[in-house]
Amino acid sequence: MQVKEMEPLCAHTTFRIGGPAAYYLVPECAEEVREGIAFANERKLPFVTIGRGSNILFSDKGYDGVVIEVGRGMERIEVLDDGMIRADAGAGIGALAAAAARESLGGLEFASGIPGTLGGAVTMNAGAYGGEIKDCIVSAAVLDADGAVQRLKKDQLDLGYRSSVIQKKGYIVLNAVFQMQEGEKETILQRMREMNESRRQKQPLEYPSAGSTFKRPEGHFAGKLIEEAGLRGYRIGDAQVSEKHCGFVINRGHATAAQVLELIGHVQEKVFQVSGIKLEPEVKII
To answer: I need a labelling partner for 207 at 20 to 30 A (CA). Which of 57, 114, 245, 268 fits?
Structure first.
C-alpha cells in the first residue's frame, strides 16, 4: 500500500483545490482498506475515503488526518452470467458502462460520462439523464465501522436521491453487482455517444469543477434558479458560476476553497431571496 505524507489534495480532486493531507494512502485490495483504517485509528486520526475526487471540496488548509483513495489497484470489472456484472469500488463508473456495452448489455448508459468511481456512485446513488444507480444495482459489499464486510442487497442500501445507507452510516464500498439488460451493442453505444455529446455541449467540462454543485430541489432545477437570480457568470476570485451551466461552480485557474465556499453561500442567499428555495450543496465539503 502506498503511503504518502503531506500529499497535496489539489492533485487528487477534479476541482484542483485542497491543501495537504497528513497521510494519503492508496490500498490495492479490501484488506488494505481495512489496514488503512487501522493506520488512522492507531494514530487517533480521522479518515476519509475518496475515489477520483469528483464530488468533493477539501479545505485550503488540507486535511489533518488520513485520506484513503479507493481507486488504483481496485478496478477489476468482471462479467458474470445472465447479464450480471461485478466491479470493484475503484473502477470508473464510465469504464463499467463501457465494459457492459462491449458485451451488449445496457442500463448504465447514463453513467458513461460521469468521472467518478463505482464506490462513489453507489454511495451517492449517482444519476443523470433519467437513470440512477438504483435502477440496476443488485447488491454491494461494504466495510462497516467495525471493519467487518457486509453484503447489502438493493433494498438494504436505502438508495434515494443522492443518498444511501452507506452515506448515512459511513460504510465504505468494496464492490457491487449489477443486473444489466441485453440489447443491441450499437444502439447502446450510440445512446452513450449522444449523452456524452450532450454533456460536452451543456456542461463546462473545459474547467475544473466538482460536477453539479447543488442538489436538485423538488420540482425545480438548481441551474435555472441560479440563472433567474441573476448569477450567471458571478465570480469571487477564480471561483465562478459557470456561464455555460449555472448549476456548476468552476475553478477558472487558481480558485481557493474559501472562494468556492463564499460563492456557494452567496448563491444560496440570492436564490432564497428571489425564489424562497434553499439550495443544498451536492458537493461533499471536508
So the answer is: 268
The cell numbers describing 225, all together, are 434558479
Q: Which residues contact 82 (CB under 8 A, 6 or more apart)?
A: none
Whether 191 is catalytic is no
Quick one: DSSP state of residue 51? Answer: S
Mean pLDDT across 29-46: 94
Residue 13: CB atoms within 10 Å: 23
The runs of H, that is alpha helices, within the chain are 30-42, 93-102, 118-123, 154-157, 165-169, 185-202, 222-228, 257-275
What pTM does this model have? 0.92
Which residue out of 162, 209, 216, 227 is catalytically annotated?
A: 162
Q: What is the pLDDT of residue 115?
A: 87
Catalytic-labelled residue, pool 69, 212, 216, 242: 212
Helices 185-202 and 93-102 pack at an angle, to 10 degrees, of 150
Provide the pLDDT confidence category of residue 175 given band limits of 50, 70 and 90: very high
Summarize the confidence of residues 67-84 as an average pLDDT: 93
* Catalytic annotation present for 282: yes
98: three-class secondary structure by DSSP: helix
